[in-house]
Write a structure and sequence with these properties.
By secondary structure, the protein is an alpha+beta fold. Helix content is 16%, strand content 29%.
Amino acid sequence: MVHLRVLVSFAFFLVGASFECPSGSSEKTRLTGTAYKYVDLETAEQCCAHCSGDQPSCAGWVFYVDESRCVLKNETNHQVADDTCISGSLGPPTPSPQPSPTPAPSPAPTPAPSPAPTPSPPKPIALLDAMFQGGAVLQRDVAVAVWGTSQDSEIQLQLRLPEGRAALESTVPVNASGIWLTYLPPQAAGYGYKLAVSDHHDQTTVGISFGEVILCAGQSNMGMQVGPSERAFDADNATAEANAAGRYTGKIWLHARTTRYVNATMWYDVTPESIPTFSAVCWYAGRDLWFHMGEKIPVGLIMNAVGAHPIEHWLGPDQIRACLPASQPLCRDSAPNSKGWGKSIVPMQPFTIGTMLWDQGEQNINCDEVADYSCLTRQLVQSYREQFNSSFPFISVQLPGYAIGAQQPYEPSGQFAMRLAQDAGSEPLKDADIIPTYDYSCAMGKTDGCPHGNVHNVHKQPIGARLALQIRRMRLGEDVNSQGLRVSSATAARKAGTVYGIQMEFEGSNSVHMGPTRNCTTCCQDSVGDFDVSVDGITWLNTSAAVVREGAVEVEVDMLTAVAPRVLRYTANRVYPQCAVFSAEGIPAMPFQMNLSAFLPADTVLV
């Protein structure tokens, strides 16, 4: 059992400001915090010395005994009991932002000062909150919240247009907690705005832009970096993308509450040095959107990704209670519920965002919480929309195929059930959708598909392109086909003996075709397809490979008995789908499970 103990004071654990390797280390303790480098070493002493030599970047280290792996961290926040490692800290860690209570939902934003309740004051006092420092991008065309703190009873705020004239001059009251908050009126997209705030003690002016703001959150597949990086957890095409990053300097800005980029401010510019450690999925979605908008509209990308954490990490306690019983054990003892929400999400609220991208679900399979996931997803979307005071589009990334442990290629899996749960979580909500990615699954036994393990698909560029296409439809209102095809009907009829034919119609496209998945091994040459059927929903039989005739997809199955098939599934019968149903736009059909009994005329025979 792993138990979490929040440090009341770092003074009892820190070695001090000296960068000498400490003579004694803390065994059975793992420091949590942001890792920025992994090194293969033989002893804890070597790991500690490596951290000492990497000053001032390194604040702490963890040596995993079983793996002979040294992890260097640029911040250390907690101690975690762990029998597999030895840890130490070399100096004061980077202070983490102070969590603040969630702002209650407010009416539609209007340029009115100080709605209540307001965010808690950051510490130390900041005239303008850190969310607006370093080149912030604010959402265009809507009223956006800005806030800060002051010792005075009021502050003076001015918004200047790129040409220099004032778009807004306002006196904003400061409440009894020392917080001021107001809304800027909607502004057109553009670079070069100036936001000035002053009181009797201080004044500050920051450069801001108005454009498209995208919040990206999730597990390690969202956290996988553009690269290339020392950590080496990088997407494909890393070197070329980093080398081209100068093109986006001053055009696209990045924000990460925790980041491995050592020179990061709250917001920071895209450069060849800053882009390698940023989320590849988030980057490619934002980059493609920026290109589509004519390279003229600012884009701000906000990343919050943590590997091996369940969705509860990003949810508040009330939202978790709405879906899970109080007796439900933690998904992971080292991942307390609501930790990421309180530490990283709440401090950003009520910052206005334009779109939210979500890539998560693997850890909830491990915790056997698939049945609860659609409820948790709905709570995530609804609560974030209230807390950020914005009805933004929500787009999630559906799980690809990957093996869990010793899972075999044809072994039924929780991945398929999670795909359906992810889809069900978005389906009833307005402006919420999902993109399929099973066609970019890795292949078991194929080493060039996914160098970071088959759960980590490295093909993030096409995934980002699909997300950008969804943003164009859902956020920009464009008439584009961005969704995976959905089955509209399926008819089963006996062909001969115990052999049945199944015919499927898909809506949303005039051109349906079969095509190989990215890392397929048998591809579309296999005699078995990616569909299977069942009589009772327990025992399943694989169908033949699918063919397209006159716009319909057809498969055959030998039921071995006279009992007709009653249930049909797609992408469930093998871990790595091989031959997908594609639309004319190259987007695969959505996974599904449906009942065939309503479409089964007893006396019909297909020929």
